[in-house]
Amino acid sequence: MREQHSSTKKLAAKYDRLCLNLSEEEVEQKIKNGEKYVVRMLIPEGETSFKDFIHGKVTIKNSTLDDQIIMKSDGYPTYHLANIVDDHMMKITHVIRGEEWLPSTPKHLILYNMLALESPKFGHLPLIVNEKG
After folding, report:
1. Which residues in 64-88 are b (16+ Cβ under 10 Å) and which e?
2. Which residues, in sequence order, are bridge partners of residue 98?
3. Helix boundaries (H) for 1-133
């Protein structure tokens, strides 16, 4: 899949949901055969909107998001899952981070929703500012 995406340069490098419709029996057989696997979050259709206290209202089309891996094949959670759980456990109410994390925020909000957790408020600061701020 990666080779196909890199050779065309027109396709976004995004999971093609190849295994989404495997039957329970097929999945169990693959696990029994020792095949490695990851756990992905299934991005819903539609849009994700949130109020960023720096940028205002931000809306992202979910079709632009990848079905993010949240549990790696070694059994460890990825940053995205660990971050959500950690912030929830620490009762974080406000997240202030660099705007390079702005594209991840919809994924995080979707995960908060999937896990039935209250999400914090978000603010994304510019990384570089001039002397006028």
Report:
1. ebeebbbeeeeeebbebbebbeebe
2. 125
3. 2-8, 24-32, 79-89, 105-114
Residues 98 and 85 in one domain: yes
Domains in the chain, number:
2
Within this chain, do residues 29 and 48 fall inside the same structural domain, yes or no?
no
Residue 23 domain-assigned (yes or no):
yes
Domain with residue 85: its CATH number is 3.40.50.620
Instruction: Please give the Cα distance from 124 to 97 (Å, whole number).
Output: 5
Of 5-9, 73-77, 99-103, least confident by mean pLDDT is 5-9
| Tokens encoding 109 | 């909000």
What is the pTM assigned to this prediction?
Answer: 0.80
Q: Which one, of 127, 124, 88, lies nearest residue 104 by Cα?
A: 124
Query: What angle in degrees, to the nearest 10, is found between the helix axes of 105-114 and 79-89?
Result: 60
Q: 97: which 2 tokens?
A: 């981070």
